[in-house]
Amino acid sequence: MEKSHLTGSVFYNYVICPRKAWLMQYQINPDTEHDLLSLGRLNSKEHYERAEKEAVMPGIRVDIVRREGDELVLGEVKKSSSGLEASTLQLAYYLQRLEEEGVEARGEVLVPKERKKVPVKLDEETRERLSSSRSEIEELLENSNPPQAKWLKFCPNCAYAEFCWS
Ligand code: SF4
Hints:
Elements: H1 8-16, H2 18-25, H3 35-48, E1 55-57, E2 60-62, E3 64-68, E4 71-77, H4 84-100, E5 105-111, E6 116-120, H5 124-142, H6 161-165
Parallel strand pairs: 4-5
Antiparallel strand pairs: 1-2, 3-4, 5-6
Helix pairs in contact: 1-2, 1-4, 4-5
């Protein structure tokens, strides 16, 4: 699979579960009515409906975009902080994509129910993490089959749970 086909979601899902990243990238659809997917959408809407709008670019889908003076701020809204590392990498990927377009921005992962705001910026450590993750994801997606299912803490709430474990 080509680099240009990578999305923020695949970075997010790769951290959560490489199998999930593979399944999503190959468009094997989970149950879209899964409760937690619905809750995630609701969560985002309820808390931020009035303030901001979702931004969509190729490979980028950001929950919130706002300006603070000259600065562009991207926000990802999450239901809980259980996937915080994944959300941070996803947002860092968006920041890097924007930087490639000549746009400087910073990010925030927002967990409204926990009143948490985690800043994300493209420092050296984050760039290295992005680079190594990109290589690992590309290698993963070269395979014509997904990795074997492995029980993770995310499985009970994953939309692919039935697919993987029934
Ligand atoms: S159910 Fe578990 S193993 Fe299957 S895709 Fe989801 S997180 Fe991965």
